[in-house]
Amino acid sequence: MVLTLERVAKFYGDKPVLREVSLALAPGRVLLVAGENGAGKSTLLKVMAGLARPSAGTVSQGVDQARVAYLGHATFLYPRLTAVENLRFWAKLFGLPGDEAALVAALARVGLERAAHEEAGAFSRGMVQRLALARVFLTDPRLIFLDEPGTGLDVRSRAVMRAEIAAAKERGASLAWVSHALAEDLACADDVLLLEKGRVAYLGPAGEFVLPEGLAGPGDRAC
Fold first, then answer.
1. Which pTM was predicted?
2. Are residues 206 and 110 located together in one domain of the fold?
3. Could you give the CA distance from residue 87 to residue 92 in angstroms, rounded to a whole number?
4. 185 — phi, psi (to 5°)?
5. Mean pLDDT score, 76-81
């Protein structure tokens, strides 16, 4: 397993956010994390990624920390740098080659090659998110955490996002993905974790998961 949680709980002061969450994520699997607002999804993802410590229980990662990637609500992009300069910064941070051709190729995968030399601060929301995805996948991570990566994206950008997720899975990466559009994203997942008030309400195959009323979101099932 690349990730194992055993009876994980998280409290903020006296407020319980997660209770008794246990799961195992195997190589090359996509886990879709679902639940209403306030169910604990973002907190769980941070705990899984090692960005927040559990109040109880254990979290074990089976990959090197350098092969772990996380995309939250903050993109960690520099608005005064161009798209290619942003990727070059992250490439150097991880000790990767920063040659122009490789970085432009990474931008081409998310449909941003024509904007390679434009400042990120002038990008639309969809372009910013696609650049953030290019940053995440640049290091060829083995364990990927995505917190609502489709928020604010247009149809084209969501298609690019799903293509990158599918490609990462094909390379053997494992993903935990918080979705706000379950009807659209469910076909891309192998398993689903549904949280209700911080507890596991469902954990099992995506094909057996029944969409709760009010959580489906827009879109069609397509991956």
1. 0.90
2. no
3. 9
4. -95, -15
5. 94
